[in-house]
Design a protein that fits this description.
By secondary structure, this protein is α+β, with helices and mostly antiparallel strands. The chain is 41% helix and 22% strand. The protein has a six-stranded antiparallel β-sheet with strand order 3-2-1-6-5-4, sandwiched between helices. It has a six-stranded antiparallel β-sheet with strand order 9-8-7-12-11-10. It has a five-stranded mixed β-sheet with strand order 14-16-17-19-18, with helices on both faces.
């Protein structure tokens, strides 16, 4: 915008009038043009007059923009005094200013971006418009500044976002991505020390993600921070899923007793929750300062942007981790399938070779007759052939090519009738604990193959135990839901019988556990095993439409979990018609069961009512709140999934406690079972759980008064 010849033809070059603090422009402004002066002063844009590199006049907007006490902070000062030595492109400010002014004179006007220094020496990006104008008989520059700091921040954030996405595409690690986000904020917020903490799967703890500028001892102190109201700014922000601003850490109740903050010199903390697009907690973004401070609007926008970028990075990393795990699982299944086909083919051809060997050997034995000196050698050939036949049968079991005599059987009965053989097979210093589902375990199976599985697992457990030990065999009823199926390709959702075989032996490292079902893979010394026992077990289970998982840690033993499809029709007709007295209750206990999986809800309602409970079910937390609000009677127990749409289980529990203060809770989740829970009356049961585990936990809470256990 061009103001024009403000002072008229007879004006003289502008200087500061001694003793008045007024510019000559102010003194000599003609009365007839006062309206231009009014516009100049009252404009919301910063207006200035530049004469040969010297600012000779400015309006109040320019003073506010640079944060000066008055016009004397700008007039009369050289342009170089209000600019950093170098502009962002690396050009010296003096050289670039001359170039821009010359271009404005040549073209009649010029617009460009410039970096100024504010009164506090912080940098201010502005858009500059230069227009030549005649003033006092000479040509000067009319200057307009517009603050573009917000626009530059948006551009920078977008560029940072693109850089992070590019790093993701190139396979950068999560720590690298989070470090980039923290560095981005610290560069744009002088004095800030930032950190990103990542929530665990159960949303109970925060662990270190990135905090390059904070001391190691402080990062160690907050690693594993509990997600709970009052646990610092980050623990509280994560719990509430809301921003928490602590302007002064000293004396604040959230920080009471936390000495590392004082040792690190941290005096304020602003924490922003990092949430997924669905509202699930992923972590927190924290900004610390070494003086008490409250954030400004620009800083709020900056940490919101950082939290959004962290959400993208953490979500991407978790999706990538799940995808890699599933791909590895699928590749292992394909590998096992290929090995099975090879083993089946070899076994078939080997059977064809064994048949004539056995036949001709028997003929030779008969011809030689009794007492012939070669008979012992013939008997050894026959014995070796029989062992070879057994080996072939194992290979056929692994490859799922042997014939099965399928029938409805009770797995509990199989275990009870076969336990004596198992006990006589293993060493005498190994004891057995058997816990069977109280109402039967009906499956369709080949009895001989089930006994083979029990024997194989018993021998495997014995070999893992050095000295005295215990083998535990359990059965139960379980529902494998969509969540389990997603993590275990090839499994169909539905009702299953669980056979769990545990030992307290030496355990296995992860790299060994990955291979244990492969034929001929063994960690035993030469001559002590063929490596076919677990491979055979794997093949039998797969041929029965089942699934097997193994959990093991070095020094802590091993648990094999075998899932067989339940023979539902037989179960309903038989043993389950009478509920076990251990779990049956005669009290009118009301349970609110909340899970976003309909299959789990149906199973829960069926079994809980069978055992004497009244049940209210809800597939969404909002529905659970509505039910609890309208239900006229007491609710004796909340059973809730941990991870759900709308809000997680602990958040739902907190909402319900507002009106039902003594409500106990039982959490269920498909994630790791080493979850740390909060609340005065809590129990945790990991999915997939058996009905017996669920009922036992309910009984512990409601009828034995025991709260706070983890199953």
């Amino acid at each position: 915008m061009q103001i024009g010849n403000i002072d008229g033809e007879n004006s003289v070059p502008s200087t500061v009038s001694a003793g008045t603090g007024q510019t000559v422009v102010e003194q000599e402004f003609p009365e007839s043009e006062s309206r231009f002066r009014s516009f100049f002063e009252q404009s919301s844009d910063a207006f200035l007059i530049l004469d040969d590199g010297l600012f000779i006049d400015c309006n109040a907007a320019a003073v506010r923009l640079l944060g000066c006490d008055g016009k004397q902070g700008i007039v009369p000062r050289l342009l170089a005094e209000l600019s950093p030595e170098l502009q962002p492109d690396g050009t010296p400010s003096i050289e670039k200013a001359r170039e821009m002014i010359a271009r404005a004179f040549a073209e009649g006007s010029h617009r460009f971006e410039w970096l100024h220094l504010k009164a506090d020496h912080s940098e201010l990006p502005v858009e500059v418009s230069l227009t030549p104008m005649s003033l006092g008989g000479k040509w000067v520059m009319h200057v307009i500044w517009r603050d573009i700091s917000e626009r530059k921040q948006v551009e920078f954030r977008e560029q940072t976002r693109l850089d992070i996405l590019e790093k993701m595409a190139s396979g950068a690690s999560l720590p690298c991505l989070l470090d980039a986000i923290v560095t981005f904020v610290e560069k744009n917020s002088p004095g800030a020390l930032c950190s990103i903490l990542i929530a665990n799967d159960e949303c109970t703890r925060l662990s270190r993600g990135a905090a390059p500028s904070l001391p190691d001892f402080y990062n160690d102190a907050v690693n594993g921070l509990r997600i709970k109201q009052g646990m610092g700014s980050c623990g509280t922000a994560a719990f509430l899923k809301k921003r928490v601003i602590v302007e002064e850490i000293a004396g604040h109740p959230y920080w009471k007793g936390f000495e590392p903050a004082a040792q690190a010199g941290l005096q304020s903390c602003w924490s922003e929750p990092v949430l997924s697009p669905e509202g699930e907690l992923l972590g927190t973004f924290a900004t610390y300062h070494r003086e008490p401070r409250a954030p400004g609007s620009n800083e709020i926008a900056l940490i919101e942007s950082a939290a959004h970028l962290a959400s993208i990075a953490i979500g991407w990393a978790r999706d990538n981790e799940r995808r890699n795990a599933l791909e590895g699982h699928v590749l292992q299944m394909q590998k096992m399938e290929a090995v099975g086909q090879l083993a089946g083919g070899i076994a078939h051809d080997f059977n064809n070779l064994l048949t004539p060997i056995m036949g001709y050997t028997e003929i030779i034995r008969a011809i030689l007759g009794k007492g012939h000196p070669c008979l012992p050698k013939i008997d050894r050939i026959i014995a070796a052939t029989m062992k070879s036949r057994d080996l072939v049968q194992k290979l056929l079991s692994f490859s799922r090519k042997q014939h099965l005599a399928m029938a409805g059987i009770d797995l509990n009965w199989v275990i009870e009738s076969f336990k004596d053989i198992i006990q006589h097979t293993v060493r005498a210093n190994i004891s057995f604990v058997i816990r069977l589902a109280p109402d039967g375990a009906q499956i369709l199976a080949d009895l001989g193959q089930m006994e083979q599985i029990l024997l194989n697992l018993a021998v495997n457990a014995q070999d893992a135990i050095d000295g005295n030990g215990t083998i535990t065999i359990e059965t139960g009823h379980v529902i494998l839901d969509d969540e389990f199926v997603k993590l275990n390709p090839g499994v169909k959702p539905g009702a299953y019988i669980l056979l769990e075989f545990s030992d307290d032996g030496c355990g296995m490292p992860e790299d060994v556990a990955r291979h244990i079902f492969e034929p001929f893979y063994t960690t035993k010394p030469a001559g002590r095993g063929t490596g076919l026992g677990l491979a055979t077990t794997f093949g039998i289970i797969k041929q029965h439409g089942g699934h097997i998982k193994v959990r093991s840690m070095v020094g802590e033993g091993t648990t094999f979990s075998l899932y067989f499809p339940e023979n539902v029709s037989a179960a309903k007709q038989g043993a389950r018609q009478a509920a076990d007295l251990r779990f049956h209750v005669h009290h009118d206990k009301m349970i609110l069961f909340v899970d976003d999986n309909e299959m789990i809800l149906e199973m829960a309602e069926e079994y809980l009512e069978m055992y004497g409970y009244k049940v209210l079910t809800a597939a969404l937390p909002s529905r659970a709140l509505d039910i609890a609000g309208s239900h006229p009677g007491p609710i004796d127990l909340l059973i809730t999934d941990v991870v759900m749409p709308e809000m997680n289980g602990p958040e739902l529990y907190e909402r319900l406690l507002a009106n039902r203060t003594n409500l106990p809770v039982l959490y269920i989740s498909g994630y790791k079972s080493d979850v740390t829970l909060w609340g005065d009356k809590t129990v945790f049961v990991p999915k997939p759980f058996t009905v017996e585990q669920l009922l036992g936990s309910i009984q512990m809470i409601l009828h034995e008064g025991n709260h706070g256990a983890v199953c």
